[in-house]
Amino acid sequence: MNATYERKDCRLCRSTDLVRVMDFPATPPGNQFLQASELDQPEETYDLYVMHCQNCGHLQLGLVVDPRILYQRDYKYVSGTSPVFRKHFEDYADWVTSEYDIKPDSFVVDVGSNDGTCLGFFKNKGYRVLGVDPATEIAEAATAGGIPTIADFFSRALAEDIRAKHGAADLITSHNACAHVDQLEDLILGVRDLLADDGVFVFEVGYAVDVYDNAYFDTIYHEHVDYHTVKPFTKFFNRLDMTVIDVTRVSAQGGSIRVAVKKNTSDNITIGPRVQECLDLEDQRNFDDPNTFREFAMRIAAIGAELKGTLEDLLAAGHRVAAYGAPTKSTTLLSHFGINKNHIEYIVDDNKKKQGLFSPVHHIPIMSKQHLFDNRPDYLVVLAWNFAESIIENNKEFSDGGGKFIVPMPEVRICS
Q1: Which of 19, 3, 6 is nearest to 288 (CA)?
Q2: What is the predicted pLDDT for the residue at 254?
Q3: Following CA atoms 230, 231, 232, 233 in sequence, which dihedral angle do they give, to the nearest 10 degrees?
Q4: Which helix or strand (DSSP H or E) is residue 71 part of?
């Protein structure tokens, strides 16, 4: 494919009745951090806008960037650097194996397995595990670390190869990957083909209701081609001879849904009440109406004006401002709100792969935590807002010395 192409149909229901509801500044891939030697070179940016399906209510990006650009050019996100995510995955492994009675020595496959952090907890329980992830270097490191990982994009063809070599999977998991995949139907057909007759697919994705309620708009970036709700999912899986049997709301990534799906050939299909609860909630939010999201865009603009105004007032008063966390979504937030290195001196990030680099577009330096104490600011903007509680808790030395934190969403607040 070309570097980008315009998606003309709904990824879930195939309808071409799409309307444009939200626009954001064109940006490079949000995770494309720069070396110092690259700062004078032009960055390739891609349009960023959201379409609403009038048929099923699904939200998706209108422009798709070639996934090889997004995930196979020194991809830098690794889940193991976050203690919060490690605990989330450990709890998930305990919960899913108990909830769905996954027998000892069962075969567990993780789609979008990243550095293997999640599968490590299944391996520790004695399950046979296999990861699939297109980020070549990260996949190779996971394999070297004891989690066998196929460095490729999961697809129906790859699923056939896996089943031939390893047998059917009793449990297939995925964490946030289903929001990243343009060819989602092919991926789900692969899941269906690889899954044992009574196996279960349990995946997590960000929930658009939480995005809407909490103004977490910065989760809109090129890597996230979809913004999911339950209603379109139920229709999508039904079309592919599968059934959504349960939906659990979880706190990961600022608000996600954990969706359990079985093949229609299963002997045990019972749809839990939480599925209907989510459907009712989405109807209450008027998610079938595109104007809901046009109004959402106006709410975002008001938050941006408040945040930028707060920073400029602090700077005018002589205060120094830095930031904590350089997640992919920070590229959208900084670009959309017009916040740059004139507002933020540097960004602290715990991921060593990002330290010493510079943020896309704005070229703000990414530093280790030590820099926070060597070059102390007065305020820290928490760009990794989904970890705000743990970031504030783990930086008491900063706040005990008088430093304050600025959490930008769902409303701008200053705290210590």
Answers
A1: 19
A2: 74
A3: 40
A4: helix 67-71
The amino acid sitting at 93 is A
Q: Which of 389, 360, 385, 359 is nearest to 303 (CA)?
A: 385
E-assigned strands of 176-254?
195-206, 226-227, 242-250
Residue identified by tokens 């969403």 is 409
How many helical (H) and strand (E) elements, i.e. helices and strands, does the chain have? 14, 19
Q: Residue 170 is inside which H or E element, if any? A: strand 169-175
Each residue of 72-94: pLDDT tens digit?
A: 565 556 666 678 789 999 999 99
Would you state the pLDDT for residue 1? 52
Amino acid at 354: K
Query: CA–CA separation, 258 vs 280, rounded Å?
Result: 17
Distance CA 348, CA 381 (A): 10
- The CA distance from 68 to 134, in Å, is 8
> What per-residue confidence (pLDDT) applies to 11?
96
Q: How far apart are the first and last CA of the chain?
A: 48
Beta bridge partners of 415: 405
What is the pTM assigned to this prediction? 0.89
Rounded CA gap, 293 and 19, in Å?
11
Determine the pLDDT at residue 82: 73
In the predicted model, residues of the chain with pLDDT beneath 50 are: none
Contact 234, 279 (CB under 8 A): yes
How far apart are alpha carbons 94 and 96 in whole angstroms?
6
Name the CA dihedral angle for 59, 65, 68, 70, rounded to a multiple of 10 degrees: -70
